[in-house]
Design brief:
about 140 residues; alpha+beta; four-stranded antiparallel β-sheet; elongated
Length: about 140
């Protein structure tokens, strides 16, 4: 591989410096596919992943605070997507990552669309009877 000149290295540093954390893995993947060898990319990618995970230190506490004072509808808590995104933002967590993490942990009901897993679902609002997108949290019992 070729060595980068200083101007290109500065441009790459500027891109990484202003990129939101959730975009870093995608940016690093682009550089990797372009065969740009930058020392520390793997460590940066791991650090970003750990930083995200650290924000969800205790998933059960995260969920308990999320569903606090909410009514169970059927067998789930339905959190409108905008509310879920705001909650995650306040917690410093990527909403997309949180939904995936909750799904993988068995807390989230999902659906599929053209073979793709959807972590938000269209449900009927019990008050307005309108269709809304929600994150559907499945409460865990001692049996789960």
């Amino acid at each position: 591989m070729e060595t980068l000149d200083i101007k290109i290295a500065i441009q790459i540093a500027k891109i990484l410096a202003v990129a939101p954390n959730e975009r870093i893995p995608m940016i690093l993947d682009v550089f990797s596919k372009a065969e740009v060898d930058i020392n520390g990319l793997e460590e940066l990618s791991e650090w970003v992943a750990l930083n995200r995970q650290a924000a969800l230190i205790d998933t059960s506490v995260f969920v308990a605070e999320l569903i606090k004072d909410r009514d169970l509808i059927g067998n789930e808590y339905r959190i409108p997507t905008a509310e879920f995104n705001l909650y995650c933002n306040k917690k410093g967590v990527s909403a997309r990552y949180a939904r995936k993490h909750l799904y993988e942990s068995g807390w989230l009901r999902s659906g599929t669309d053209n073979g793709k897993t959807n972590y938000t679902l269209t449900v009927t609002d019990p008050d307005t009877k309108k269709q809304i997108r929600c994150v559907c949290i499945i409460p865990k019992t001692d049996k789960n």
